[in-house]
Amino acid sequence: MKNTMLILVLFLLSSCKGNKDKQGTDIPLIPVFTELQNKAKAIFGVLPGWVDSPISPITDEKVQLGKTLYFDPVLSKNGTQSCNTCHNLSTYGVDNKSFSPGDAEGTIGVRNSPSTLNAALHTAQFWDGRAKTLEEQAGKPILNPIEMGIPDEKFAIERLKNSEKYRKMFASAFPEDKDPVNWNNLTIAIGAFERKLITPSRFDKYIAGDDKAITDKEKQGLQDFIDVGCITCHTGPALGGNSFQKFGVYKEYWKETKSAKIDAGKSDISKNDAEKYMFKVPSLRNIAKTAPYFHDGSVKDLKEAIRIMGKIQLDKELTPDQVDNIFAFFGSLTGELNPELAKAPQYP
Ligand code: HEC
Ligand code: HEC
Hints:
Cytochrome Bc1 Complex, Chain D, domain 2; 3% strand; two-stranded antiparallel sheet; single chain; mainly alpha; binds heme C
């Protein structure tokens, strides 16, 4: 009898401990799948551990180099800014400003800095999608006169070639290349690093079978988010990032956001009137931490952003309860970045 009890206790203990799935998410030994969990898994899918590059395989050396570049103000003209200035990895990949000032001259940009976290899951980069990949995107802020302000590619490469550390790091990241310190490799390395910036959260544990990972209120918020139709645009493992939609389907957006300037979005690039006011649907991962909201950071309060979305994207006045529940659900999307990736490297 005593023995049977002991075995039972041991069994219970081991089933509480849990194990890890492929993504490193803790899931219980006996996963539970309710209808809502199954539904959420089918709608959003499983968050990958990282996103492979179609142009150049990701290696530890490339990631290490990309990380060093990401944090290094050497990539701005006056040495005052790194990627991390506007996409701070210790504050969820953003600077929490409506607009970000650029290198030395301090000229203010015209759009809100989106997070680099989970950006690898997007089908295109920038609010208007004008860069197809992270690698294509990575070079742009460096050469943007109101961002990092480097005059041209050659200028940046000469600087890096003057550094013994970078000569070594590029050579070990790109061992096949005769002249590894070049612009293309710089963008590949930054891209490789960003492809690892994925932040699993309690929501991922929940859809992996841990029914207790999110609270009842968060579950209700998830249910509301599905039922009112937010998922027509915010789908996939990033809850967005995979389509372009008109901002203000039912009402001009600036009337609700009180935006100071009217930004036409995608049509400014494509010159196609059908794309007027179209923006990339943003990811909602870590959304509770990345205020202010929208492409111009015009709304500071997340509940207000939720209310506006219901009104102008779905023509629905959400009840205060619905707004509260969705707000709670968003808290379950606050994730964790591997601390090794987030930690700023030491510069000599
Ligand atoms: C001065 C601030 C600033 C700096 C420095 C900066 N960025 Fe950005 N970043 C922005 C802004 C603003 C946008 C949005 C611009 C737009 O969509 O038109 C952006 C967009 C992005 C995006 C697209 C994300 C998405 O959701 O579409 C990525 C990725 C990114 N930056 C990475 C980087 C990298 C890598 C560096 C360093 C090489 C860098 N940024 C430097 C402000 C900055
Ligand atoms: C028809 C498509 C569509 C629907 C439906 C939709 N959204 Fe959005 N959502 C967008 C677009 C596009 C943006 C970006 C708008 C901009 O800033 O230019 C956005 C932005 C947001 C933002 C701000 C994100 C950020 O990083 O600034 C939040 C929060 C949000 N949506 C929540 C919701 C909620 C909650 C619902 C349901 C009530 C919803 N959305 C329904 C398309 C949609």
